């Protein structure tokens, strides 16, 4: 049998409103969890999947060999790659330009961030670790065209000691030395002349 007070039980009439305010009171004294984005940006987890980056060797040459494995691995069909042949530093190919060690490089490289779901399968597929992901997550824009990133948008910045390609292989004439982790040769300057 229920207590009747305008149709509701005593519990519904007296206790439930107080219990509802109890949640409010408890929450009032808790530390707020609201993030003041974009005025305060909190760092992501170290392995957060953000915008991609095309990496370089220590001499500035590009690690991408234009193999398209990343494009084939992508479940969202977000990557477009066109490979091309490098020139040789000795000019035996007719004087073409060199952008990466070895035979091929990525002449065209695009990632469509309207499609990308930041799953990371492309970076797993890359055989040279040319493609990795940064922690950058601010990828919004006000038009579709600017969300298709070109190679120039994705290439890693030049660090000290790096030279913008095209140029000859500065670490070694053998591209295997690049993959083996050989470092740039030490150049000593003696009496104004550079010697290796
Ligand atoms: S992160 Fe995933 S969806 Fe985005 S380009 Fe790579 S494979 Fe495609
Ligand atoms: S980023 Fe890696 S997988 Fe993609 S084309 Fe370049 S070398 Fe190949």
From TrEMBL:
[4Fe-4S] cluster 2 binds at residues 74, 116, 119, 122. [4Fe-4S] cluster 1 binds at residues 64, 67, 70, 126. Its cofactor is [4Fe-4S] cluster. GO terms for biological process: aerobic respiration. Keywords: 4Fe-4S, Cell membrane, Iron, Iron-sulfur, Membrane, Metal-binding, NAD, Quinone, Repeat, Translocase, Ubiquinone. Binds 2 [4Fe-4S] clusters per subunit. Belongs to the complex I 23 kDa subunit family. NDH-1 is composed of 14 different subunits. Subunits NuoA, H, J, K, L, M, N constitute the membrane sector of the complex. NDH-1 shuttles electrons from NADH, via FMN and iron-sulfur (Fe-S) centers, to quinones in the respiratory chain. The immediate electron acceptor for the enzyme in this species is believed to be ubiquinone. Couples the redox reaction to proton translocation (for every two electrons transferred, four hydrogen ions are translocated across the cytoplasmic membrane), and thus conserves the redox energy in a proton gradient. This is NADH-quinone oxidoreductase subunit I.
